[in-house]
Design a protein that fits this description.
This protein is of the alpha/beta class. It has 8 helices and 8 strands.
Length: about 270
């Protein structure tokens, strides 16, 4: 029986390096078969692409075929992964954390955690290297750009919101690790709020968690819910933030639900 490797239709990948050449990323891109709207395709920038690119692409490929039924337009998916065969790379600890922390330096088994504190450098790669390349290659609607991250990736999504809210229109933070860099994130949130009067934003933010994550000592469900309440209380017309808990789901099992809901959140024909 002849066998071949299973491939994802209309998807390709290549390696890109950060501007200083110190870090390599495996970029995975899916382009819909459907013709783009006059303004270009919506685009979803996806963190930890080694683990969830296929799941996101299949959601986009199936739901984008009938926007009038599914409420989701065809979209380009840009996955940012790493040159590894595993679902996660240790380098994510550096890319997704805003500042090196003295609180979390070891795994639960006592082994040291990888280097941290490179979120600003990673955001610079996305904004100055990756995005211009994508916009040159594909018909992208710059007003309909989304970023999706989970766990530490969700923390990076919120860091990007606070530091450079104009970078994206839609922010999807799945189970964000809000117990990480708490003092740093609090300072960033306060600076973000202080800037809103002079620099209003136009963003939609969605934080999604698994209900079963409530039992974790980090209490990130409470932290995420409180963050949503604080930002909602500002009554800023250009800041739309929502919080969702998925019943009976945990930190990992919640991912497919987040991905499916992201389509209607970021790619709705009416947005």
């Amino acid at each position: 029986m002849a066998r071949s490797t299973v491939q994802i239709p209309r998807a390709e990948q290549w390696t890109m390096k950060s501007r200083n050449g110190n870090h390599a990323y495996q970029i995975m891109v899916f382009q819909p078969a459907e013709a783009p709207p006059p303004s270009g395709y919506p685009v979803i920038y996806l963190l930890d692409a080694n683990s969830v690119f296929g799941t996101m692409v299949e959601a986009v490929r199936v739901q984008g075929r009938r926007p009038e039924k599914t409420g989701a337009l065809p979209a380009i998916v840009v996955g940012i992964g790493y040159p590894t065969a595993g679902p996660f790379s240790p380098h994510r600890y550096y890319d997704f954390t805003p500042q090196a922390t003295t609180e979390y330096t070891q795994n639960s088994d006592g082994t040291p955690l990888p280097k941290q504190g490179g979120a600003d450098e990673f955001l610079q790669f996305i904004e100055e290297v990756l995005k211009p390349d994508m916009e040159q290659q594909f018909r992208i609607d710059r007003n309909r750009q989304a970023i999706f991250g989970h766990s530490l990736g969700g923390l990076f999504v919120l860091h990007t919101l606070f530091k450079k809210p104009e970078a994206f229109r839609y922010y999807i933070a799945g189970s964000p690790s809000l117990h990480w860099n708490q003092n740093v994130m609090q300072a960033e949130e306060e600076e973000f709020i202080a800037r809103l009067e002079q620099h209003p934003v136009n963003v939609k933010v969605w934080i999604g968690m698994g209900e079963q994550e409530k039992t974790h000592p980090a209490r990130n469900n409470d932290k995420a819910s409180s963050l949503t309440e604080r930002l909602s209380a500002l009554k800023q017309p250009g800041l739309d933030i929502k919080y969702t808990e998925f019943e009976e789901e945990n930190h990992v099992s919640v991912l497919p639900f987040l991905i499916s809901r992201t389509m209607r959140f970021a790619c709705s024909p009416e947005s």
